[in-house]
Amino acid sequence: MLAIIFILTALTVALFALTLMRFRPGQGAMVARLDQMQGGDTTPGELVARRRRQARSERLKSVLQVLGQRLEGGRKDTTEVRRFLLQAGYTDPNAVSIYWATRVGLAFGLPIAGLLLLPLIGAGRTQVMLGLVWLGTIGWIGPTFFVRSRLKARQKEVQLALPDMLDMLVVCVEAGLGLNQALVRVADEIDHVSTVMSEQLTMVNLEMRAGTPRDEALKNFGERTGVADIRSLVSMLVQTDRFGTSVADALRVHSDTMRTKRRQRAEEAAAKTTIKLVFPLVLFVFPAMFVVVLGPTAIALYRTFSKL
After folding, report:
1. What are phi and psi of 87, to 5 degrees?
2. CA 13, CA 20: separation in Å to the nearest integer?
3. CB count in 10 Å sphere of residue 109
4. Are 123 and 130 within 8 A, CB to CB?
5. Which of these, 19, 35, 36, 101, lies nearest to 68 by C-alpha position?
6. Are the C-beta atoms of 105 and 63 separated by less than 8 Å?
7. Do the beta carbons of residue 71 and residue 101 sit within 8 Å?
């Protein structure tokens, strides 16, 4: 039991530290990229260390790729996993192989590490077995949990940036730009609001420049994000292009619809708060109130009946 408590505490502290490192102010991807591009303040030792890290990461990636390709061969859900990783932002062609290799490697690597470390802290045989099972489970489901949390964060960012993107698109189309030029302009302007939305729109523009039909490029945009509102926007744009109706009017109506949906989501979330508050009230607030209100009365009755 002490070993399990120690492991849980260590993992909690590690996850908390990773969360703090991930959400440090001023250390976003753009700032890190700018720091890498600045070569004036970089010493030769830092350059050598950076190249060594890149070489190690490339070697590890190649090993995971080889292992993942062997594991991926007999699976039938490769398409779903690829879409899952693509929506989470992993666009590498070998992302599926690396994903399976990471899951299998952690599922076997963490129990092996626990088998070496748990006896050192005085854990018994039963505790070691439970710890190995727990570490193997964490190693297997940990990458999936991480990718799913990243996917939800990206979808939430796209969902929040969608109204601004629609407003910019309406302004650009009403100013006389075509839909393709409007998408290029919006991709540049939306970058300070949402990096994910800017990347997705830029990818749509690159696909259209490469010769992909606009309908297919827009449908790929909806598949990459996995957001229902984006798919409805794509369907509206495809139908507008097919039937030759006004793009500006359709975008304006769709923007009003998105605002209505956003207000309805806010009202739904506000209505759910009363139900969500039932469990904290029953588990934490009501017992404390019962102790404070009924505690003195119960003590007084106990003393009275004990005298009798």
Report:
1. -70, -25
2. 11
3. 14
4. no
5. 101
6. no
7. yes
Domains along the chain with CATH numbers: 2-21+50-152 (no CATH), 157-272 (1.20.81)
Beta carbons within 10 angstroms of residue 308's beta carbon: 4
**Number of residues written out for the chain:** 308
How far is Cα 233 from Cα 238, in angstroms, rounded to an integer? 9
CB atoms within 10 A of CB 298: 12
Which residue has 């018994």 as its token pair? 124
Which residues neighbour 106 within 8 Å (Cβ) at sequence distance 6 or greater?
Answer: 138, 139, 140, 142, 143
At 304, the amino acid letter reads: T
Q: Taking residues 135-153, report their average pLDDT.
A: 89
CA–CA dist 159, 269 (Å, integer): 15
Neighbour-count burial of 186, counting CB atoms closer than 10 A to its CB (0-12 exposed, 13-18 middle, 19+ buried): buried
Rounded CA separation 153/219 (Å) = 21
Q: How many separate helices (H) and strands (E) can be counted in the chain?
A: 13, 0
CA end-to-end span of the chain: 46
pLDDT tens digits, residue range 82-127? Answer: 888 888 888 887 888 888 888 888 888 888 888 888 777 777 778 8
Residue with tokens 């100013």: 175
Chain centroid, CA 116 distance in Å: 33
What is the spatial distance between Cα 231 and Cα 226, in angstroms, rounded to a whole number? 8
Side chain identity at residue 302, one-letter code: Y
The Cα 271–Cα 265 span in angstroms is: 10
pTM above 0.90, yes or no: no
Kindly report each contact of residues 177-186 with a partner whose C-beta sits within 8 Å and lies 24 or more positions away, as own/partner.
179/214, 179/237, 179/241, 179/247, 180/205, 180/208, 180/214
Among 163, 149, 160, which Cα is nearest to 23's? 149
What confidence tens digit (pLDDT) does each residue in 46-59 have? 666 767 776 666 66
DSSP state of 244: T
